[in-house]
Amino acid sequence: MNVIIVDIETTGIDPIKDRMLEIAIIDFSVKHGSIVSQHSELFWHEDLVNAAEDVNGISSELINDDIAIKRMKGNLTDWSNDPHFSAIELGHPLLAHCAEFESSWLGADRNWVCTKQDWEWPRGRLGSSLVELAIAHRVPVPYAHRALDDCRLLAEVLRTYKPAEVEAMLIEAMKPRRNFIANVSYEDRELAKKNGFNWDPAKRIWVRRLGVDKQLAGGYGFPFPVSPLF
To answer: What domains appear along the chain, each with residue ranges and CATH number?
Structure first.
């Protein structure tokens, strides 16, 4: 089984008003625990200021230079004629560390798997950043936030496990999921955090995505009750 690790860099978080600057993919063989191929591209934008330069390190001068690829039309990208990115269209699971973000730019109608919210890592806390996850797995972090660097970092975290372990975690992460609320008091809020729930300040609740199959089987084994978020 192969998975496609995907990461993008953008000028902001809004797919409508912001722009994609870079994309990278890694074709990763779960069976062999190895990278099969990898590719990244930087996109050209005329007279565009990168408001996220402090985050991704991509200068406005670089993306305004015509050495970058003139592929972009608005915010849509045509992958159909590019062999480097044909794997995106083959139906393989697409792994992203915050798939909600990547899918909002590249299309939600794909086989996305979120390694931040849906992947049950034996080491590291659910909801951790990619750098925190790498540190928890004792994977060196020489660089961060360029698209291919982040893809490689996630690939190296996967390589710390045996292929059978990665396959089992992938199968579990691909099961249907929904958001659940941790029913805890203010005094027990650290319990929710310790068990992978994230605080939603707008709704003032602790939330985590969980597999619905475990709910049907009788629960999740948390030291507090949980309920579906409707």
So the answer is: 2-173 (3.30.420.10), 177-228 (no CATH)
The string of DSSP letters for 48-106 reads: ---TTHHHH---HHHHHSTTSBTT-BTTB---TT-GGGGGGGGT--EEETTHHHHHHHH
Name the residue type at position 83.
Answer: P
What residues are paired with 20 via a beta bridge? Answer: 10
Q: 139 φ, ψ to 5°?
A: -100, 125
Contact residues for 149 (Cβ-Cβ < 8 A; gap 6+):
142, 143
d(CA 219, CA 90): 35
How does pLDDT run across 99-155, given as a tens digit for each residue? Answer: 999 999 988 888 899 999 899 899 988 788 999 999 999 999 988 789 999 999 999
List the alpha helices (DSSP H) in 71-211.
99-106, 130-136, 147-158, 163-173, 189-194
Calpha distance 25→148 (Å, rounded) = 7
Q: Which are the contacts of 102, defined by CB distance < 8 A and separation ≥ 6?
A: 6, 7, 8, 94, 96, 112
Predicted structure pTM score: 0.84
184 pLDDT above the threshold of 80: yes
What amino acid occupies position 70?
K
With beta carbons less than 8 A apart as the criterion, state whether 10 and 43 touch: no
